Task: structure prediction
Amino acid sequence: MKWRIKAGAEIDVLTKDELNDVLSEQLDPWRGGVRYKRIPYSGTLPVTVDAPESGYVWSVRLLSAVFDARSPLRVYTQTTDPSSLVGVERGDDVDHVMRWQYNQLVLFGTQPLIVAGSGVAEHATGLMYVAEVPVGQEWQL
Result:
């Protein structure tokens, strides 16, 4: 919408619908609250499962892993350095399930979760379940 200023200049002002479109696009991620995601993965160990997009935070709730051979499960964040270890299932099995409580394992934008074995297993497939919120709304997790 254009308005004429008495000095003769024109300014371009958003209409109500244009402003609503812009605000909806910017604020929609903040309106929804917690979103739950199911993320499948597969690959050669160690497997980098996934990471939240920049601007989002995940609370990891469950991780399942099926190895191609019997092996204990180890779960890391960002790197397989021992200081990044966030979970160990000591059972020497093929099938594994690890659970975390809300806010127990939180991943911030682009911080991946890494699944590794400590035995003879070379390949893993599985699922990761997460609760996702935009940065700044971590209190909802």
Q: What stands out?
A: The chain has one helix and nine strands. Strands lie at 2-4, 10-12, 35-44, 47-48, 56-77, 85-99, 106-108, 113-117, 123-134. The helical segments are 16-31.
